[in-house]
Predict the 3D structure of the following.
Amino acid sequence: MVVLGSSAHFHATAPGLFVGIDLGTSGLRLVAVDGSGLAVATASQTWPVAASEQDPAQWLASLEKLWKPLIRELPGPVLAVSATSTSGTVLPTDCKGRPIASAWLYSDRRGSELGARFGIPAGWGLSRWLWWQLQGSTDCRLTHPSDYLLTALGAKVGWTDHTCALKSGYDPAAGKWSLALAAGVPAAQLPAVVRPGTVVGTLAPEWGLGSGVKLVAGCTDGVAGQIASGALAVGQVCLSLGSTLIFKGVSEAKIASADGAVYSHLHPDGRLWLPGAASACGGAILEKFYPREQWEELNGCAEALNRPTGQTAYPLATPGERFPRSGADFAGGLPDVPTEDPHFYAGLLEGVAFVERLGLERLMALGMPVQGALLCVGGGTHSEVWLRIRAAVLGRELQLPAQVQPALGAAILAAAGVWGVGVAQAAARMVRLDRQILPDAALAAAYEAVYRRFLERWGGAG
């Protein structure tokens, strides 16, 4: 499915536009924004995901299909382009940047046993690259999807950014491919590493935008989403609540947990770190019990209840959790009322908020600073009652950015490359807030006792 669109207004004060490309598992999205972050045109295409590998030619064909209609809509010149893609996905390319095999998604488990010998998680691209070594091809280079697309657009060959490189065996603290080399990957197969926002070439003429359009190194989609949220200063936190719950922060020191559930990307500007973690708890539990078309009515019922409900659920759609609890068989627990009772639905909303608070407290215990309002993104922000519950349980103001797609994060990187400024500085100019949710003091006080009972029930580490 292809979707095209444009905004009704263009910020005339912006001298040029920036294009961000987001290559996801199930589709491609393009956005063109002006220097204030206002989107002036978008284009997207989706495709079914039937396997754990994909043909890079499909990505390029989709980009070509969306590119011409998008640039026809643009009300001004494009200054730069950048791209983002999924973390942990890799593909082999030749010396000219052309694919020589399929791309292996982060969900592919080839090489997981090989990787385990070196302590490499199965979801890391390095595990699949070790498997590729056994297939007999040595004349190749490890490449990430965003690198491939930018190279196809005209960027030089043989580079990657430090966020994509992390799960391919790069140590951003040391600035070396330490883990990849220790696992036996030949140095000749490993690209040079640059910071996101680094200019890596110019757009080729055949893409129809003339000369001088800069191509700028991108990052993983997770980091791009954080850039788009504006959470790039020490103490800022972005909470993404969709099917799962993702925590992203900013710290001066690298933060990690012994089990790997918490790890840190190097900040796009260097010096700082972006600690993060992910919980399996989230909106998926709502889909398990209720069709989406009922959610608006259920939210209304939950709004009408006296809250707190008193429930202390740790709601998981399926067994298995990594953070803030840990255990492959950990199944959590549901509200102890019938599913048709409005207190069950409201108890699920509260349970996710309790897990969210527990996650923040665990990250703070590891040394991650949390200061001021929390930036909230994801599908969970569409529920007003859930936002109020979360604000009360967390005891903090929630701020909702106007748009948080990874494609916007890529566009911000493009702008940083052209302006010659840090990514945080570019984001400060281009990220817009939609609204704020203040915690209700009385409700926050009422939730304290319930949260203490939640901790007594679920606060253990295992």
